[in-house]
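Input for the complex:
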Amino acid sequence: MASHAHDDAHDAHHDDHHHELSFWEKYIFSTDHKTIGIQYAITGLLFLLFGFCLMMVMRWQLAHPGTAMPVIGPILGSLPVIKDHFPGGVMSPDGYNEFGAMHGTIMVFFGIVPIAFAAFGNFVVPLQIGAPDMTFPRINMASYWTFFISCVIMLASFLVPGGAAKSGWTSYPPLAGIADLGPAYHWFFNGQSLWLTGMIFNITASLLGAVNFIATIIQLRAPGMTWMRLPFFVWAQFITAFLLLLAFPPLEAAGIFQFMDRVFGTSFFMPTGLVVQQQLTDWSGGGSPLLWQHLFWFLAHPEVYVLILPGIGIIAEVVANNTRKPIYGYKAMVGAIFVLGFLSFIVWAHHMYMTGMGAKVATFFQITTVVISIPSVILITALLLSLWGASIRFTVPMLFATAFMPMFGIGGLTGIPLAFNTVDLYLHDTYYIIAHFHYIVAPGTIFAIFAGVYHWFPKATGRMMNEFLGRVHFWLSLIFINGLFFPMFLQGMAGVHRRWADGGGADLDHLTYELARPVLHWNPFMSYAAFLLGAAQIPFIFNFFWSIWNGRKVGRNPWEATTLEWDAPSPPPHGNFDKEIAVYRGPYEYSVPGAETDFTPQSEPTGSKTPVVAPVVHAPLSAH
Amino acid sequence: MQIPHEVTARPDTGLYNAKLGIWLFLASEVMLFGGLFSGYIFLRLGAEPGYWPHGLLNVPVGTFNTAVLILSSVTVVLAWASLKMRQFSRYKLYMGITILCGILFLVVKLAYEYPQKFTHFGVFIKKDALGKYEQYLGNQHLAALKLDPRVEISGHLLDAPKGSHYEKVAQENAEHFRHLLHEGGAEHGEHGEAPIVTTDDPNDYVIQLDPANANPTDPANERPSFWAKPQTMKTAVVQAADIDGPHPSMYIPRHSPYFAVYFTITGLHGLHVLGGVLIFIYFWGPGTELYRRNPEHFTNRIEVVGLFWHFVDLVWIFVFPLFYLL
Amino acid sequence: MSDSKEHSHDTHAAVTTDAASHDAHNMHFGLYWGIGGVLIALTGVTVWLSYFDFGSRERNIVIAMLVATFKVSLVGAIFMHLKGEKPTIWRFLYFTAFFVTGLFLLTALHWVDPIFGTQHNLH
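Predicted:
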């Protein structure tokens, strides 16, 4: 049709007008997926560090309750607003709640998801599928800046009267509904209301990102990049994007409801006759706190898989590359990740066994929860079996990947007892739960993130990170992270509750909870492990910045990898590829018998077979 | 750099990028409104008998607004079809009608429906005091018919307790009411006395009653009616001690879970309408510049915003019966 | 500008040479108006039905929701062209429909089997 010829003419015409991008367009308000990915990575890593610092202050309090943390305590005790929660530099219970709630929120929504999903997804996915950019570059930019606004709101909430949100990352009403309200607080600029506002922005940013990721993977695959030739990382991001797309909106709805409860005095989550401090509250009542829990966990359970799936995707790439053989059971893994994504929508109420929601409901969710362990086990088993008979290159990313497997295994297997109603009634809200999900997210996903950073750093900068510092970083992290989290299982099984602001007591002579007696000595042990884990990140931070300018220069494919991103220059220019890109084979053709090298890139044409032709030419627009 | 498939469809999926993008966005919107409606279902199922109100909204106005939105859905799809045939002036006409429909919808909602609720007053009576107000609630009559009890007395506030939020509004209403009494046409009480307008007790509320409370045993009041019945000239005195909750309110979001969910869902829907109208205005005015450069691209954009608009219409099709009728 | 010149030619071509598709779209005009009319009529039916008593409130709700669902499927199928839409879109809409139904049912399931003494919403 004539109009299409016109389109092409127009597009070409447009292309000719390359203009030099200004500094702002290139680095700040950039629409390039790689820049946006790096922006997400830097913001996310900073938040990861910030969330970790909050936790270290809490760990000091748990190790030595009632004493001021050296150096940090006096500083916090002198900062405006924050000093209210640190009288004399000592953390108050309110301060403990504030830091605890913000640690959880920041780590989940501002640390892990932005890095594992948005940063790696943005940087790697278009490169791996052979696309010039995301489908909607401007929406991509909007996604980052919406996220940025949510970051500013969350950080600012530390400085409003009363401090940041204190009701846990789950913000359960009615406590979250009544927190930070009253004459001493601003009706809007208070911790919990700002938390909700920040979350609504954060969710919006995630939705924009998710739409973009899915559309990119469906629409912009290079010629020949069929679905079963997608690298597993792309599959992981694809499913993750769907989880975000469909699970986040109910939390947005819940956030709007709770915002209405707090600002307009509605009673979505406020029960009738709510009495606070012997006073009947002003809410009309008729609502139900359980509604929040349903809507919250409808997101927050799929969110758990949002945290872990990109990590598994990264590990799959690193494992295939360093074992020099295809990952074991690629198709089974793709199937498993599909089933996992699907089931993750119908397991949420296993977080709610304690609420008295009814035995039938609990039974339903118990069954689905046990079923979902099957695809998870398929994924981790396939990765583990990939190591069998391989001549493994123990590069730094591979070290993190090999550590990921047992660590994720511990986290996953300790979760199975929690699926059962009766066991959960005992372990609910103890340190056992804390240990369980931290094993999945910290030495699980965060190790995967480290593996990803070391793996794709040469692509992003054109330089390698230092190998020795990387090994130091890995071994110290591995040791101290286990020192930090493993004793939590012991404490949890003894019944130590996750929200005790003094960890059970100052010492054996001053116990607030008698049941903490046999496990109290682990508190200082874990805390010092946490501080040392913090110190172990210094080699990484130094390595990261030092290598940007001083690392060993490398070419396109330093890891001798097969996937498409290694066909682009390092770092890739705007538009990514400097040649026509087409795909002729599966993603992990390592050690193919008869091949010249032990890796055959996806873009390498096969001599005999003709490539599966995929569309690039403009075909006539299909009739409506 | 050009992103592929921005205008023309990718042959194996048959879609251009924006169309896939908008459908993904709409899927997430389905989940957003799904979350909101599941809140509605949850609260409604959890409400005790009699605590989920019926017939409080203006059905003729709601029906009118539904028709307006449906009409706008028709015109927006016609606007797109006109562009498909490259009939630009026809597009302008249909898109113009769509914009006007959207604005009309919002005006009716914001200038008429919401304010009408914001000035209407109602109190829930404590369970142990229901008997005291039997003459306004008619619960024995309803129980005999196996109908849900009436637990709320509503109407126009004529006298509010001293220092209450609504004192001033009540005074204005009372003045207006006295004027009406003066004009004549006042119904008098059982014993022929004139209706009470204010009381001496500073804690009492005086309410000019809605028909259902004025004649609670009238069969016509057992079910809501299509045309809203006017306020009666009967009044009732409700003592503050008999009222559930410390601070009774007008029909604002905090009044009850019903109004909470009504204002939240219709408010969010209204924001969607507003967003749609603003985008339409852009594509009716400055955005048409794209049509001159690349008509197919422009047509695609109208299809995409049209899809969004149909979704907004579609949400309303559920909102209307759930809040106005059932 | 050459662009606009090309465009006028282009528009001309689209209208004159594509007569078949032109007719098809004109036919659609009638279809769209017709569906609009049906939708408005069904709105009237919904209102009318709501003043009938079908025995219980639950039944009234189910009947009204059936009419609303029918209206929504008309909007979806005709106005939003879902009738002839590509499988890619249908596929994720199936999942969305499934999950939103799950959200409705599983949260509501809570009221089927409440444990005595744990309900906090009673007046």
